[in-house]
């Protein structure tokens, strides 16, 4: 009926409208299936996607009619059809008719319209046949790859976007709708049907298939560009951005990236396409796209292939890569900074950014307040990034920027070495070593002493830029997807055979049995390490041995035996103990003796425990003496704390069970002991008596602990007050109020431990008062470490002082403490501090509570 | 109560009288005419023959010019051979109270490597030669048959430290750099070598019946290995408390192996898996040598262990003998 030529445009419009209206009427009212089919068949030729199949009517007007139908009637017609969906109505069509005549309108029409209509229907429907029908249509839509056609269609609209006006606004609105519908489809469907949907709407599958569609579209784009035709990637990149923004970057790039890598390796045009897609994403999405890419790209060279020089023109990209990802974010994977810095260094156009970033990084790294307030992970991330930057510098850059970098390093080193955290100090040392080594290849090398472990080794590895791992690693998944199953099966079978082999071997008798067993070994306990020197037996010899600077073995044996000698409490110990402690305090580990620190420490503690009066006098006096380094002072504090704790323990537990009192073994095997037999009959009698005796109650099963005099109570004050006395005195070598806050903090910890050790001693109350006074003075110290130490001291006071004193004599102090702690909980910038304060408050609360409830009773 | 292992035994008896450190001891097998005896070589150049019944020195042979004797070994009836640091290898006739030097072979070696003898057919002696060489000497004709030299790799192997015959054509050499090498003396080629130790190999012993050998060195490992067509393969190892072994000896019944430690202790191990069995302490200084006797009738067919030390004493022990 469309072959009448010469009909005007208006007529066509009219006739199309008429036709549509008529068939709608039929479809709505008729119950006859053949009539319904005929009505649909009438419209079918007008379907835009069906053009090819209706070759039998190739006339001009038909084309115009199709256009007219597509532009004005298609959406409404689809809506009408959807409205008709019901079990009854659809049942009027045979299955093949339904597919041929009905579904085709949705699947082969104008895809974006069809998609939007279906989506909105699903959105507004409740569980019904209609909903199910729409869902199955959507599923078909996805399975038949219509999504890629949809996206591809959007790539082909170029002209509309450039000219302003209603057309482009319309498009923008349409795109916005489409993007939202595509990206949120799985969520919406899940909301509607509560997980009873088909597997292809599960996010993982849906987005993987979406990624496949994207890849198909990109291939088309690539072909188009190759044929030097125009097309737009704007929609694709917007879609990509939205997908990533909604948190599905991982799924998408897991599929896409291997393909990208493979494709960009050989074809520059592909690099352009990828770069346009990635960089073209809307600014707000760029971060999530890059975040995922940086984690997934295995080598920085690929980064350059995918991004090109886009960073130089795109401000947002530049900000993200040189600023946000390096300074504000923190990643566990070293891959991220490696990718960023490698990318920056990969092209001469971008190289200047490496140096610039390095300088910024060093600034932040060396900032004392940053070191103090950022978390360790963040700081380690900075350090890693710096090391990676160093690995990429070339000779020219090194010489050119040497002085600036060195200066930044030096200022940074200071605050690192000052840090109370060992790990932060080590980061500083490693960075300094690496930086000086890189900048000055000749000349003296800086080297620090630090414990080398897995982390430090990893850090130093970062100095070498990673090599191209080749494409096999990443692109192997592309092929292996199908092969995977077979291989696992093969492995399984081979495993099985191996097992069989193993069992077969086991079953063969082992003829090489250990026939050494028939020879009974003799006692070999006396087979110990021999040493060339005599073990000192007297403390004076031991002291001399420790003095022997050039005799390694003598020093080592003396150090090993020192604790044992002191513990055996010889009579002359009082005279020599100070000398011994002096030697030990000044002893340096020049020979790398095993367990040097432990041996030295335990010897000093032993001496302090045996002669507490002299020792405490010595330690507390020396602590404020001038010529000591921080380590020695820390040692003194440690010894005081350990000795106080040991002294406060009841004596039985502290007697060392050393090898000295090893029970002597009889040399000859004794004949059966007559007394054993005697006991034997006595046992029998006892048992008989027991069985005949009736008992009403049993006494304590364990004997009452025997009371022992507290060894610490008489000397507790000597440990405490002299140490507290002059903490604010300032010397050249020690300034506890200022730089040496580490010492101040450790001293507070030690005082807390001493107070705790003096628990139950009468002097504990005075000590608590003095300690609380000190805490009050220092309560808003700027260093986190000191504040933590203060809170430790306070909680020790709370736990050690009898609780009735807390609510009577010490009531005012406790109230002040409470206010201070509450203040810390509310205002302290450090998380740990806040936590500690809350805990301390809880301890205080529970102790006071218990006391008050006991009183009231 | 857990079973306590027995205390290690004390020595059976001790031979005193050596004028200097005892460098080597060797049992002299008994014949139907003569009872078994013990040979010892000392640092002052004397070779002593000890009577094991009277426990006294029977003969003193002084032929090495006051230079220390490294090695002494019986050859055949009434014949013994000794190697001294004066550079000579002497053979002696000591039968029926004689004490004559029968031959004198110059060996020109300045090393501490002990010789070894192969008594099958015409006796062959492996002796250290010049330039890190090991010479094979035919004792009858007094001629050097061949020299074995790890020529290209002198640096890699260093000097030979100890030698041990497996049979006429196969020889084991332990090198300064820690390798144990298996040589074919007839073809003069090194069949295999293995880096068994981190320090110089000090001693080797080989048991023909079990086809396995053991080596000790200046480090703290005792290594047990098998010799097959394929070469040397490590089969067991044992770690010592104190490093350094100067001699090892496998008992003839392949049950135990003894080591002479620098820490003045004798250690006994099971031969199968080198399981540590006993630590015998008597000596006060480095032990230089250990040797097991064949079953001796004087001691109820017990196999006696003899050890010679730097402290001039020779201790004799009876362990793991059926009582």
From TrEMBL, chain A:
It comes from the Eukaryota. GO terms for biological process: 'de novo' cotranslational protein folding. Residues 493-508, 650-660 have a biased composition (Polar residues). InterPro entries: ARM-type_fold (IPR016024), TEL2_C_sf (IPR038528), TEL2_Regulation (IPR051970), TELO2_ARM (IPR057348), Telomere_length_regulation_dom (IPR019337). One of its GO terms (cellular component) is cytosol. Residues 350-444 form the TELO2 ARM repeat domain. Pfam families: TELO2_ARM, Telomere_reg-2. GO terms for molecular function: Hsp90 protein binding; telomeric DNA binding. This is Telomere length regulation protein TEL2 homolog. It comes from Patiria miniata (Bat star).
Automatic annotation (TrEMBL), chain B:
InterPro entries: WD40/YVTN_repeat-like_dom_sf, WD40_repeat_dom_sf, WD40_rpt. The keyword Nucleotide-binding does not apply. It comes from Patiria miniata. Keywords: Repeat, WD repeat. PROSITE patterns: WD_REPEATS_2, WD_REPEATS_REGION. This is Guanine nucleotide-binding protein subunit beta-like protein 1. PANTHER family: GUANINE NUCLEOTIDE-BINDING PROTEIN SUBUNIT BETA-LIKE PROTEIN 1 (PTHR19854:SF1), TRANSDUCIN BETA-LIKE 3 (PTHR19854). It holds the Pfam family WD40. WD repeats lie at residues 15-60, 194-235, 280-323.
